[in-house]
Specification:
The structure holds two protein chains of two kinds. By secondary structure, chain A is mainly alpha-helical. Chain A has 14 helices and no strands. Chain A has helices at residues 2-9, 12-38, 42-48, 60-69, 71-102, 108-120, 124-136, 143-166, 171-179, 184-195, 197-213, 216-221, 230-240, 245-275. Helix content of chain B is 69%, strand content 1%. Chain B is globular. Chain B starts with a helix and ends with a helix. Classes of the chains: A mainly alpha, B mainly alpha.
Chain lengths: 280, 318
C-alpha cells in the first residue's frame, strides 16, 4: 500500500517512540534511585553520593529499618484493614445496588445522589467528628474503626457504579428465577452476584488499593504504633525528618514494593477498571 | 479520601433512569431491608459527622470541654485571613499540576502511544510504555512523598547531585525549602504522580473512535497533528471532561503530599486548605476554625461535583 510505503521511510514514528521511551524513563528514574540507594551502605553513600552504583549490595539498611519500625506488623495491619474493607465494601455495595438498581425503590435517585456525595466529600470535613465520636465509643485507635469508615467510603462509590450496572440487568432472568420460586435473597445470591462477578472483582481490587493508600484518616485515628498502616508509619517517620539518606531510601523501597507487587498482579484489572463506567 | 486515592478513582457512570415498570409480587419493603446496612453506615460515618463538622464551625472549641457558640465569627475571620486566601492560591497551582497539565499532556501521550506506537510498533510496546507511565499512580501518596522529598533534598539529594554531575551545579536549589520554588517542586511531584491516570483513560477511549474517521482525514491529507486536533480531541471530549473534573476535585483535597513533602512550609508557602484545617484541628486546637475551613472546602467540592453532573446529564440528553 502506498501509505505504508510512505510511512516506512518516515522517521517521525521512531522519534515519537524514543520520546515516549524517554518519558517512561523519567517516570521510572525515582524508583531506580530508590533501589540504588536502599542497597548502599551509609559509608558508601557518604563517599560517592546518591547517583553511583553501590560498591556491594548492602541489605543491612533494609533489615535495620524493617526491625526498627516492626515493618512486618505494619504490613499485616495494612493487609487486615485493606482486605476487610475490600470484602465488606463489595458486600455493602452489592446490597445497596440490588435495592437501588434492581429493586428500584422509591426515591432511588436521591439515595444515589447521597452516596455520590458521601464519596466526594473531603475527608477533612469528617475527620474531627469521627475522631471525637470514636473516642467515646472506644473505636479510636483501633483497626476496626478504620475498617468501618472505609467500608462506607468505598461502598459509596461502589453503590453508585453498581447500581447503574445492575439497572441494566436482564429482566427476563430475574422474572424466570421468580417464577421458579426464588425469593429476593436467593435471586441476589444465586443469580445477580455470579453474573456480576467481573465487575465485583474490579471493585474489590480498587477498594483494596485505595484503602491501602489512604493517609489522612488512618493518620488521625491510628495513633499507637502497633495499629499503624504502612503509609502512616512511613509518613510519620518522614514528617519527623529523622532518617539519614540510606534509611530513607530503604523505607521508601519497602513502601514501594507492595504497591509494585499489586500493580503487576492486578495490572489488567486496574487498566480495565479505570474505564469501567468512565464513559459508556 | 486523601489526595492520591481520590485522584485515581474512575469516575462513576450516571445511572440510567428507565421508565418505571410494574412488577409482580409484593411491594418494596424487602428491598429496603437490603439497603439497611449501607444506610446505617452512611448515617453514622458520613452524614452525622459531616453535620457535626458544620455545627462545630459555628463555635469556638479547643476539642475539650464545651464548644461555645459564636455564629458566623469563624467564617468572618476566615474570609479576612490572608493566609487562607494564600492557601487557596496554592490550591490553584495544584489544580494546574494535577488537572490541567496531566489532561493536556495525557492527551498527547495517549494519542502518541495509541496512534503511533500501538500501530507501528505493536500493542505490546504501547502497553509496556503505558504501564511505566501509570506506575506512580499505584504508589501510596505518603511513599511517593518520601521518595521525592529525598530526591529533592538540598544536601545529598539526587537532583542536586545530578545537576552537579552534568556541570549545572549552579542550578542546584533547596527545592522544598526555598519559599519561592517549593510550590513548583510540589506541583512537579503531583504532575509526576498524576500523569498515568489520563493516559490510561484516554487510551481506552481512543479504542472507541471509529478508525474510518482517521482514514478519511488521512485521505484528505491531514497531518498527524491535524488528525489529533480535529478527530481525536473532539471524539475524546467526554473522557477529557471526566478526567478534568475528577482531577480537579482531587486537587482540592490534596493533603498527604503536603504533609510529607513540606509540612505546609517553608513559612506557609505550600499550605493548602485541607492541610490548614488539619493543623487547626490537631496542632493549634482551634477546632471551630478548622471545621469552618473544611466546610468551605466541602462546599467547593460539592459545587464542582454538581456542575460536573449537570454538564454530564446535558451531554447525555443531546
Amino acid at each position: 500500500m502506498a501509505t505504508t510505503a510512505r510511512r516506512r521511510r518516515d522517521p517521525a514514528p521512531h522519534l515519537v517512540l524514543w520520546g515516549l521511551v524517554a518519558l517512561a524513563a523519567v517516570m521510572l528514574v525515582p524508583f531506580a534511585i530508590i533501589v540504588l540507594n536502599a542497597l548502599k551502605s551509609p559509608a558508601d553513600y557518604a563517599t560517592s553520593g546518591p547517583l553511583s552504583l553501590p560498591d556491594e549490595v548492602h541489605a543491612q539498611g533494609i533489615v535495620d529499618f524493617w526491625q526498627r519500625v516492626d515493618f512486618g506488623s505494619k504490613l499485616l495491619n495494612s493487609f487486615v484493614i485493606a482486605g476487610s474493607v475490600a470484602v465488606l465494601a463489595v458486600v455493602v455495595s452489592v446490597l445497596n445496588a440490588y435495592a437501588l438498581g434492581i429493586g428500584r425503590i422509591r426515591g432511588r435517585l436521591w439515595v444515589l445522589t447521597l452516596f455520590l456525595i458521601a464519596n466526594t466529600l473531603p475527608q477533612e470535613a469528617l475527620v474531627y467528628p469521627l475522631y471525637h465520636l470514636f473516642k467515646q465509643v472506644d473505636l479510636y485507635d483501633t483497626r476496626l474503626g478504620v475498617i468501618i469508615v472505609f467500608t462506607i467510603v468505598q461502598a459509596a462509590f461502589g453503590t453508585y457504579l453498581l447500581a447503574s450496572t445492575l439497572s441494566g440487568f436482564p429482566r427476563e432472568v430475574l422474572e424466570a428465577a421468580r417464577v421458579d420460586g426464588a425469593n429476593r435473597w436467593q435471586v441476589l445470591v444465586r443469580i445477580v452476584v455470579p453474573i456480576s462477578r467481573p465487575t465485583l472483582g474490579v471493585l474489590f481490587v480498587f477498594f483494596f488499593i485505595w484503602t491501602w493508600n489512604e493517609f489522612l484518616i488512618p493518620l488521625v485515628l491510628l495513633i499507637s504504633d502497633e495499629n499503624q498502616t504502612v503509609p502512616v508509619a512511613l509518613g510519620i517517620l518522614q514528617g519527623q525528618r529523622m532518617m539519614d539518606a540510606t534509611t530513607t531510601s530503604a523505607s521508601a523501597l519497602l513502601g514501594v514494593l507492595p504497591a509494585v507487587v499489586f500493580f503487576l498482579f492486578f495490572q489488567r484489572t486496574l487498566t480495565r477498571g479505570m474505564t469501567v463506567g468512565a464513559v459508556r | 479520601m486523601s489526595v492520591a486515592t481520590a485522584v485515581d478513582r474512575p469516575s462513576p457512570a450516571k445511572p440510567t433512569p428507565s421508565p418505571p415498570r410494574r412488577r409482580p409480587g409484593r411491594g418494596q419493603g424487602t428491598y429496603l431491608l437490603f439497603l439497611l446496612p449501607g444506610a446505617v453506615l452512611l448515617l453514622a460515618v458520613v452524614l452525622v459527622p459531616f453535620a457535626m463538622n458544620v455545627g462545630i464551625s459555628f463555635t469556638r472549641w479547643s476539642g475539650v470541654g464545651d464548644p461555645r457558640w459564636i455564629g458566623l465569627e469563624n467564617y468572618r475571620r476566615l474570609f479576612a485571613d490572608a493566609a487562607f486566601w494564600a492557601s487557596f492560591r496554592h490550591n490553584v497551582g495544584l489544580l494546574v499540576a494535577m488537572a490541567v497539565l496531566p489532561t493536556a499532556a495525557g492527551l498527547l501521550v495517549a494519542a502518541a502511544l495509541f496512534d503511533v506506537v500501538g500501530k507501528r510498533f505493536g500493542p505490546r510496546a504501547a502497553g509496556v510504555l503505558r504501564a511505566c507511565v501509570y506506575l506512580p499512580q499505584v504508589l501510596p501518596i505518603a511513599v511517593a512523598g518520601i521518595v521525592w522529598s529525598w530526591i529533592l533534598a538540598p544536601r545529598g539529594g539526587a537532583l542536586n547531585a545530578f545537576l552537579d554531575a552534568v556541570g549545572l551545579g549552579s542550578l542546584a536549589r533547596d527545592w522544598l525549602g526555598d519559599p519561592d520554588i517549593a510550590l513548583y517542586s510540589v506541583m512537579g511531584v503531583l504532575a509526576w504522580i498524576q500523569l498515568g491516570y489520563p493516559v490510561v483513560v484516554f487510551m481506552a477511549g481512543m479504542q472507541r473512535i471509529d478508525p474510518v474517521l482517521h482514514e478519511a482525514a488521512e485521505l484528505d491529507g491531514a497531518s498527524w497533528f491535524g488528525r489529533f486536533w480535529h478527530v481525536t480531541v473532539p471524539q475524546i471530549r467526554p473522557e477529557a471532561f471526566v478526567v478534568l473534573l475528577t482531577c480537579s476535585i482531587a486537587a482540592l483535597k490534596v493533603f498527604g503530599p503536603i504533609y510529607v513533602l513540606t509540612g505546609g512550609g517553608p513559612g506557609g508557602a505550600t499550605t493548602v486548605p485541607s492541610y490548614s484545617s488539619f493543623q487547626n484541628f490537631f496542632e493549634k486546637t482551634q477546632v471551630g476554625y478548622g471545621a469552618a475551613i473544611a466546610t468551605v472546602l466541602t462546599v467547593l467540592v460539592l459545587v464542582l461535583t454538581t456542575a460536573f453532573l449537570r454538564v454530564q446529564n446535558r451531554g447525555e440528553e443531546r
